[in-house]
Amino acid sequence: MDVLLEIAEAVNRTQNLNELYQAIHASLGKILNVNNFFIAIHHPEQDAISFPYYVDEYDKNIHIIKEFSKTASLTGKVIKAGKPLLFQKQDILEHARSIDMDTIGTLSHIWLGAPLKIGSRVTGAVAVQSYTSDTCYTGEDLDILDLVARHIALALERKEFSDALQDQGQILEKILETSPVGIALVENRAFKWVNHEMVKLFGYHGKNDFKNQSVKMIYPTTEAFAEAGKNIYDHFPPTNKMEIDLLLMRKDNSTFPGHVKLSSADPQNPVACLIATFSDITERNRAEQEKGEKEKLQGVLEMAGAVCHELNQPLQTLLGHSELITMEQDPDSQIAKDMHTIQSNIARISQITRRLAGITKYKTMEYPGNLKIVDIWESSDTP
Fold it and tell me: Which of 68, 131, 221, 375 sits between 20 and 30 A of 42, alpha carbons compared?
């Protein structure tokens, strides 16, 4: 039936449920009189029926019927019965009298209703009615309405699920857009989606600059791109998660150290589709370097303090004995000259210990043997 095909196609064609309702109404109008037509959704936990789509020649849109089990609602009767029902005017009046309640809305001459049914679960009903003719519909029309209603139920469920996924996707995208790190979806080493922070981090103008572009654009050289790919593809762990530090490049060709976290979206082929986050770790590296230098400086200070402490006493002893020996010798004698040499070197060692005691920063100098030693002259503020 063409009408059923149109309803199925409308699920993908329409933008929202209201558009879908209108499309269903238009399609059904090709085979039935739908001048008075509505779709009702059942809310069993609230004992209520809502009407997301309602077209009527006489009555205004009824948004909701609360405590419908206590009313003469024909829609409620169809939902409870779980099957299509046809009511003539006299049937409607007798139904109302049987439960001692008034009819709802303008009294129609004929009313057809079919449940929105998926399997054995009834989610609502669809109905048409005529206020002018009791021969407007037949039992065959009721069968048609029932068949269409089943397809409508499936179409509504699909559309609601699709809309819910779309809403969740929009919410998730908003969350990702507020992230302080760059986030990208990468398929086969090409960007498929990035957030705004990614654009900002790499200095581009907009997201379209990344779309379907090779990730090679963020590496400073072809060699760096190849090496990173080899490390990732050859060593991607079975946990489907990986972290790696890389040198990355901005649009203006400036580089920065980056920390990349990778998570696979495809367990069967982990590296085919990756969710990646990118962070500039320049400040982190600087902080770690400063921390390392402070730790080294602390080690130098502790060593310098120990050296000064251990040297000062024997130096004072040497100086005292050399002065006593000098006093007992002829000033021009060789011994006196040797004592002056000793005293001069003691003074130099004392200057070195003062330098050690005055170290305030960590600096090194090259030393024979391909070594580096602490440069006490540049590391100390003591004159």
Answer: 131
Query: Mutual orientation of helices 74-81 and 89-98 as an angle, nearest 10°?
Result: 80
Residues 222 and 255 in one domain: yes
- In DSSP terms, 170 is beta-bridged to none
Boundaries of domain holding 147: 2-171
Residue 227 lies in a domain: yes
- Going by the DSSP 8-state scheme, the letter that residue 39 receives in this structure is E
The answer to the question of residue 176 being in a domain is: no
Residues 33 and 164 in one domain: yes
Helices (H), the chain: 2-13, 17-28, 74-81, 89-98, 139-177, 196-202, 222-235, 282-327, 334-357, 376-379
Number of domains the chain is built from: 3
User: Tens digits of per-residue pLDDT, 97-115?
Assistant: 876 676 777 889 999 999 9
Residue 285: inside a domain, yes or no?
Answer: no
Q: Please tell me the distance from the alpha carbon of residue 258 to that of residue 4, in angstroms, as a whole number.
A: 55
Long-range contacts made by residues 239-247, C-beta under 8 angstroms, separation at least 24?
240/264, 240/267, 240/270, 245/281, 246/219, 247/219, 247/220
pTM assigned to the model: 0.48
Cα separation, 293 vs 302, in Å, equals: 14
Residues 371 and 268 in one domain: no
Neighbours of 225 (CB within 10 A): 19
Contact present, 104 and 73 (Cβ < 8 Å): yes
Q: How far is residue 51's CA from residue 69's CA, in Å, rounded to a whole number?
A: 16
**Which residue in 148, 137, 122 sits closest to 35, CA to CA?**
137
DSSP 318-375: HHHHHHHHHHTS-TTSHHHHHHHHHHHHHHHHHHHHHHHHTB-S--EEEETTTEEEE-
Q: Residue 165's pLDDT band (boundaries 50, 70, 90)?
A: low
Whether 86 and 142 have beta carbons less than 8 Å apart is answered as yes
Judge if 300 and 348 occupy the same domain. Answer: yes
- Return the residue matching tokens 């000062």: 312
Residue 201 lies in a domain: yes
What is the distance between the alpha carbons of residues 61 and 76, in angstroms, rounded to a whole number?
Answer: 17
Which of the four pLDDT bands, split at 50, 70 and 90, describes residue 270?
confident
